[in-house]
Amino acid sequence: MFRIEFTDGAIEDLEVFSKPEQRQIVAALEAQLTINPAHETQDRKRLHPSGFAEWEIRIRKIRVFYDIQNGSVKVVAIGKNFFINLRYFRRRARIANPSEEPTWRESLIVRGDDRDECAAHPADDFNAEIEITRANQSLETFLESRAREPGTTSVLDVKKQLEIDR
Q: Is residue 106 classed as helix, strand or coil in its secondary structure?
């Protein structure tokens, strides 16, 4: 069974979300990554065979980047993709009025570093999104800096710190 640990930056990312979202994210990570986190599924893809933040998992509109090291899963970054502009991946402030949050009824526009655009349906085309993510140098640089953060915090301590333990 794999332990789940968060970098300080990933904890900061998690703090941006509401308490119910935080609970959902942590519960999904515990359910999906404690056993065989290196197995590709419809919502979990390997970004590249070696490097930093080697894996990405999709939890509805949320993306979580992680590494697997010595029996533990190291969560590097967590973000909510509003128009999946991967260059500016993370949501840094809460929307004051949740009713103003964009709806997800239509296809999304995906933009890579080169500004090429393609339509992607959020529920179906995770493979296309992964290809764009793999080619995004600025995101890769960001994830590398996050992955180099020295300390990690266990999932239990994160739950206590954010007061989301049940």
A: coil
* Domain boundary assignment for the chain: 3-81+136-162
CATH code of the domain made up of 3-81+136-162: 3.30.2310.20
pLDDT values of the chain reduced to their tens digit, one per residue, 166 residues: 999 999 999 999 999 899 999 999 999 999 999 999 999 998 999 987 766 788 999 998 899 999 998 899 999 999 875 434 443 344 444 444 444 444 433 333 334 444 444 444 444 577 777 787 777 778 788 888 888 888 899 999 999 999 997 6
Q: What's the pTM value of the predicted model, to 2 decimals?
A: 0.72
Q: Order of strands, edge to edge, in the sheet holding 3-7? A: 44-46, 55-59, 62-69, 72-80, 3-7, 152-154
DSSP 113-127: TT--EEEE-TTT-HH
Which of 78, 75, 73, 77 has the alpha carbon at shortest distance from 1?
Answer: 73
Cα–Cα distance between 90 and 34 in angstroms, integer? 25
Distance in Å from the first CA to the final CA of the chain:
21
CA gap 62, 78 in Å, rounded: 7
